[in-house]
């Protein structure tokens, strides 16, 4: 089963939930935690895995053969991302804008465009306490997270329960992470900001056809509007984690919730049982 854990916004406790859920399930069978927040991965800070593999992530970028190029400009017209510009007898390539779609080389009538590769990040994998771990790191200054996220998702073992820790927000990296999952667990907090971003996150999951449920973190602060929204939209609230100073202190020490308070393991296992039931209903619908 592939389970995405997303939040809509940062700072809601998404990684706290993802890591504790993974550790709680790892005693019952094969589990992978793949941190897809490639711009700022942080699950490794809580889990402290042993990293035993590292691979670069590359994307194809065009190279213009000036001897063959007639500067007709068809490549620039075909590029939806403005990664090639042709002016007079000059053809410029902007690698940071290139999405590697290959349209420029496809339309070139003189076959003057070939491809080379450019490293945009790295994927690392390892293990901790029976839990298999993987994450990606996007190179500083790179704008495209999707290629690195796809490389992280390729680590997924079809025989394991795979938990994808999504980036915050609702933009392309989140869509890339959640797409293809059996279920999306949305972590939020009972505040106006939490409700606003939860609303957008729910819209994303519905748009890409992934069933979702909610975990309310810091329950007891704020107001009831998140609960009212979930009831109105028919979205199940699967777990409530109280607004508890001890949890915040454990997180600040770099501890997972279940490491600091082992009694939570059973709650996370029950959470997964409910997710599995809802995912089965969703796939049958």
Radius of gyration: 22 Å
Q: Could you state the oligomeric state of the chains shown?
A: single chain
Q: Which shape, going by the Cα principal axes? A: elongated
Q: Which stretches of 5+ consecutive residues score pLDDT under 50?
A: none
Structural class: alpha/beta
Detailed description of the structure:
The chain is an alpha/beta fold and 285 residues long. The protein has eleven helices and eleven strands. The radius of gyration is 22 Å and the shape is elongated.
Short description, anyone?
With 285 residues, this protein is of the alpha/beta class. It has eleven helices and eleven strands. A nine-stranded mixed sheet has the order 3-6-7-2-8-1-9-10-11, sandwiched between helices.
Mind sketching the topology for me?
Layout: E1 2-6, H1 14-26, E2 31-35, H2 43-47, E3 50-64, H3 74-78, E4 84-87, E5 90-93, H4 103-107, E6 113-128, E7 131-138, H5 146-153, E8 161-165, H6 172-178, E9 183-188, H7 192-207, E10 212-219, H8 225-233, E11 237-242, H9 245-252, H10 257-260, H11 264-284
Parallel strand pairs: 1-8, 1-9, 2-7, 2-8, 9-10, 10-11
Antiparallel strand pairs: 3-6, 4-5, 6-7
Helix pairs in contact: 1-11, 5-6
């Amino acid at each position: 089963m592939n389970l995405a854990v997303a939040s809509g916004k940062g700072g809601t406790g998404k990684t706290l939930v993802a890591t504790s859920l993974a550790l709680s399930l790892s005693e019952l069978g094969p589990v992978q935690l793949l941190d897809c927040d490639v711009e700022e991965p942080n699950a490794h800070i809580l889990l402290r895995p042993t990293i035993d593999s590292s691979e670069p992530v590359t994307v194809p970028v065009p190279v213009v053969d000036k001897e063959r190029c007639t500067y007709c400009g068809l490549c620039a017209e075909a590029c939806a991302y403005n990664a090639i510009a042709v002016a007079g007898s000059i053809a410029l390539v902007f690698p940071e804008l290139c999405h590697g779609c290959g349209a420029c080389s496809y339309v070139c009538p003189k076959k003057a465009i070939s491809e080379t590769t450019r490293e945009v990040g790295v994927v690392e994998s390892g293990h901790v306490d029976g839990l298999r771990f993987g994450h990606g790191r996007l190179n500083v200054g790179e704008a495209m997270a999707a290629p690195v996220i796809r490389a992280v998702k390729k680590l997924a073992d079809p025989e394991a329960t795979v938990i994808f820790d999504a980036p915050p927000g609702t933009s392309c990296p989140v869509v890339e992470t959640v797409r293809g999952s059996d279920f999306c667990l949305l972590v939020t907090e009972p505040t106006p900001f939490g409700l606003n971003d939860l609303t957008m996150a729910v819209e994303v999951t519905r748009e890409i056809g992934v069933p979702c449920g909610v975990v309310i973190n810091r329950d007891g602060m704020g107001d009831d509007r998140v609960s009212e929204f979930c009831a109105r939209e028919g979205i199940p609230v699967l777990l409530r984690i109280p607004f508890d100073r001890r949890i915040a202190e454990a997180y600040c020490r770099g501890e997972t919730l279940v490491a600091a308070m082992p009694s939570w393991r059973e709650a996370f296992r029950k959470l997964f049982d409910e997710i599995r039931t809802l995912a089965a209903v969703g796939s049958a619908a």
